[in-house]
Design brief:
There is one protein chain. By secondary structure, the chain is an all-alpha fold. It has a single domain (53-255), classed as MetI-like fold. The chain contains 11 helices and no strands. The longest helix has 35 residues, at 54-88. It starts with a helix and ends in a 10-residue tail after the last helix. The chain crosses the membrane at residues 7-30, 64-86, 93-117, 123-144, 173-192, 198-217, 229-251. It comes from Andreprevotia lacus DSM 23236. InterPro entries: Bact_Polyamine_Transport, MetI-like, MetI-like_sf. Residues 60-247 form the ABC transmembrane type-1 domain.
């Protein structure tokens, strides 16, 4: 099928609009100038200063810790939810699991903030982690359910006919077959957690800055613009793209799971 030149041109403009700003951030992270106005020369000084910035390092450590806990907990709960959605076909369960994905993030953030205030819970790293877990469970469940739908159910039935209990059949047959989907869901949950800004903004407390929040605090006022932001943004972009690439290799259907 021959594609019109107008289609190629429109697609090129859209991709340029999406990716050109990202490329500019990466390029200017190596610029030997405190201003992002023109290219002066190549330098690694901003990366050196970044690794000596205690505030930024603390925010990065908070982000990685929250991301790790969110990844582990949401993967376990999301796998169980995805298996239940596939096995029992309950009408209410998909609504409960997938609603956090469907509603706007700002509404999720406000709702969680009100919920934590009603519980008289101090906002901090714990509240951010709980919020990220609630948000990521649905994504893991979608990926796992997608993997289960492509599984040959006759293998489980054969194991049961040979005397395996339901738990043994799940552990020996189902779990190894859906493991790529579980790994993909875990990486997706980790990526969503470290990149999240909106929910973290509403549920963070004093002294619980995450990397996206710290970056925002440095760029919202033009006078405070710091070239280190370009450096940390480039590293965060590299980490995110690497995780997406791993997901696409481990479970190619995971990135298409939302359409299943």
């Amino acid at each position: 099928m021959k594609v019109s030149r107008w289609v190629w041109g429109a697609a090129s403009l859209v991709y340029a609009f999406l990716y050109l700003p990202l490329a500019i951030v990466v390029v200017f992270s190596f610029n030997d100038s405190a201003l992002n106005a023109e290219w002066v020369g190549f330098t690694l000084d901003w990366y050196k200063q970044l690794f000596h910035d205690d505030v930024m390092i603390e925010a990065a450590s908070h982000t990685l810790a929250i991301g790790f806990v969110t990844c582990v907990v949401s993967t376990v709960l999301g796998t169980l939810a995805g298996y239940a959605m596939y096995k029992y076909r309950l009408r209410l369960l998909p609504v409960l699991v997938l609603t956090p994905i469907a509603i706007p993030e700002i509404l999720t953030g406000v709702s969680l903030l009100i919920f934590f205030v009603m519980l008289n819970m101090t906002l901090g790293l714990v509240s951010i982690t709980l919020s990220h877990i609630a948000f990521c469970i649905g994504f893991v469940a979608i990926v796992v359910r997608s993997r289960l739908q492509g599984m040959d159910e006759s293998l489980v039935e054969a194991a049961r006919d040979l005397g395996a209990s339901p738990i043994t059949a799940f552990r020996r047959i189902t779990l190894p077959l859906i493991m790529p989907g579980i790994i993909a869901g875990a990486l997706m949950a980790f990526t969503l957690s470290i990149d999240d800004f909106v929910i973290s903004f509403f549920t963070a407390g004093v002294g619980s800055n995450t990397l996206p929040l710290e970056i925002y605090s440095r760029v919202k006022v033009p006078v405070k613009l710091n070239p280190e932001v370009n450096a940390i943004s480039s590293l965060l972009m590299l980490l995110t793209l690497s995780l997406i690439l791993i997901v696409s290799k481990v479970a190619p259907s995971a990135l298409r799971a939302g359409g299943d």
